[in-house]
Amino acid sequence: MADELFEKFSSQYGVFKKIDAFGYLKHLADNPETERKRGKVVLVTADTPLKASRGEGKTTTTIALIDALRKRGIDAAAVLRQPSMGITSAGSKGGASGGGKASLNNPEFIDWGLCGEMASIEAAQNLLVSFAEKAVDDGLLDEILVPRVSEVPSRALRSIAVDYGKSNIAERMVLTPTCELMQIVVLSRSMDEIADRVGAMTAGTKDGKPVLFGSFIDMWRITNILATAVQPAYTETVEGSPVYIHAGPFANVSIGIPGLAAVEMACARHDIVIVEAGYGADAGAQKWLDVASREYGAQWPSAAIVVTRASTWRDDPALSWRYPFHVARLEEVGIPAFPLINLWDGEDDQIDSLRSFAAEAGFRRPIIGNLFRDGGEVLVSQIDEFVEAVAGNENEVRAQASNKGLSVVDTVRKIAKTAYGVPAERVIFKDGFEQSLAQAAELVSAVGGNIDDLAVVAVKSPATMTDNDSLPEEERTVTLKKVEVRTGAGLVHVNLTTSLTTPMPKIV
């Protein structure tokens, strides 16, 4: 019955299948007697990378892990984010579909964005801006606040002005994964919710007062474009393990998690669902816990895998505090955290010293392997403790209290303490921050909301946790720089460190 239901909500999309996750979940809700599973979520996160353009191997690990679990007879699946073509295809990082024996089928289609989400979301948000430009012509707006988006790098797109004759209307261009519409797709559980959220997006202002898109456009024009973008793509690893791919990269300047509907659907079909969150534990994992779980009801993880390269973990003494901090932080909130060391060629002789180092640090027994070379097979005999921890962790409302009700500043101070190790007294306001916060609060109030009810998204460099991670612990600070609200997504962005949301200034 379960496979028949899955096929009912599946359709062919090139070499992939697209799954109507909204329809699938509605069917389960309307028919509670339907056979389903209640899978447990395992979060794959990582050490903070030494460089923004360098991955630690989360996707490769995720693929190897589900292959290993299935070799042990456990029904496991993965939910991955649709990678950004601007990063993967421009050569700034490797592909985002694993590698070697821990790879997906048809990786080139995934890395080049041919699962469909990115192109559709890009088109839909750009159409919203076109509607906003027409609204300027019609006298409904005199300032446009929603940016256009692009999936490919271009310096020329970083500063734009549109000539309207009497005045030039400045516009912004951001990368597709960072845009508000991407966040709406990630967080929504139905097409009606998407329509409501798009309608609540702030298009711009008229005479200083915010104007929402819902006041002057028909939502079907946008939701029709998103018809396939809201549907997770289904594929498999080269070993035949099931993988769902949907939305949400860029955990440093956005929320960096896959679509919540995709994760919920996977949990209805499998016993263990491995969810990959972007960048390090201070980025994607922080946002899974604080945004997805605490604010949007996503499942609290039953365990976590914290990935690192041997070189990231040990080779820079000034930064070696970060990995133990990440592991301890997850353990402190009731999530068993298992170190996984992603070996590169020539590092096999380090295994004994890595195990000793881990024991001295008080970690759980680390999982170690060259996953590119050996795939999931190298993990099969190493994951006994991990499997036991997942099975034994029932996670009864471990999500703890929502951050809603706290002020924006108090929420950021809480994030700084728990996710970056910086106490409240060393959270600093840059000149202009308080003015930016006041303007953002005024905008939200003008559309009938309260800024403190929005979920906070920390916008930061992916390669740093504080203003200077190399300083001694007692000297580290976090500086708050500016605030931006996203009324449709229900999020407030607080910039902490310099990080680009615009199309890349160079191809690496």
Shape: globular
Largest sheet: 10 strands, mixed
For the record, give the distance between the C-alpha atoms at the N and C termini, rounded to a whole number.
Answer: 49 Å
Mean pLDDT: 89
Report the strand count. Answer: 24
* Stretches with pLDDT under 50, minimum 5 residues: 503-508
The proportion of strand residues reads 15-25%
Query: Could you estimate the helical fraction of the residues in percent?
Result: 25-40%
Radius of gyration: 22 Å
Task: Explain this structure.
It is a single chain. With 508 residues, this protein is an alpha/beta fold. Helix content is 34%, strand content 19%. The chain is built from 18 helices and 24 strands. The strands form 7 sheets. Strands 1-2-14-15-4-16-3-17-18-19 form a 10-stranded mixed sheet, with helices on both faces. A 3-stranded antiparallel sheet has the order 7-12-13, with helices on one face. Helix 2 crosses helix 10 (260-269). The longest helix has 21 residues, at 117-137. The protein is globular. 51% of the residues are buried. The model is unreliable at 503-508 (pLDDT under 50).
